[in-house]
Amino acid sequence: MIIRDDNFKPYPLLRTHHRVMHVLRLPPQKILLPLIAVALALFIAFWTPWFLIAALSGIALQYLIEYLIHRFLYHMAPPDQVNGLFKWLYSSHWGHHDFPNNPNLWGGTDRWFVPIISSIFFLLISGLLALFGNDTPFLLAFIAVYLGAIPTYITYEWAHVTAHAAGQKNWLERYITKEHAYHHFQDFSTNYHVNAGGIVVDKAFGTAFDRDTYNRPDNIRTMGLAPDDPRLIELRDLYANDYGISKSDRAKALS
Fold first, then answer.
1. Which of 36, 64, 133, 165 has the most CB atoms lying inside 10 A of its own CB?
2. Beta carbons within 8 Å of 100's beta carbon, 6+ residues apart
């Protein structure tokens, strides 16, 4: 039987355009959207078939990055004590599992993290292209990152908001919500993808949710830790003001 045991009301973003606007207003998009516009203009003005290949490669790269970061970074084993790493893990992801309907913990609010990472990938890709003798390494890398990977990242943010927000949803949004709910409420070691179509990556790595064979882990909302683990209690209190975690929310989280 599929079980959903979160004790908190979903945050209302009632229609698709509300969820899209929520994502477009996140701080990184103020930097990323102009870069996407520049990449699109370059794509149109200097079109070659290599641009399409570069954009598709960027999309595929982002799907892989989404999976790898979620599985191996956000779901790493937590430290034995509350240190800087555990604080970062909690604010980045563990707190989101703890309070999945709190929009302040959905992510996407760090203004510089994604722009900096995308710039690093741009430099790495252009360097590799130059190493292999490509004539336009910077241009192709710019297209790959800012017309492939970054728009795919933004659709990931939209998919994640869609999965957690309350409201009317079309068939695609209902599918995204169902697939992500398996990760939160059935088995947190499966379905690391969020973007539509990302199930292909989970299947390739053997982590796709199978409702016929899965074993629901204990303490799923706290990713295996006891809900009253002193580390979690300390972190809930520490981030209560930053993320709007009320006393009643913290009390519910203990059960």
1. 165
2. 6, 8, 164, 184, 221
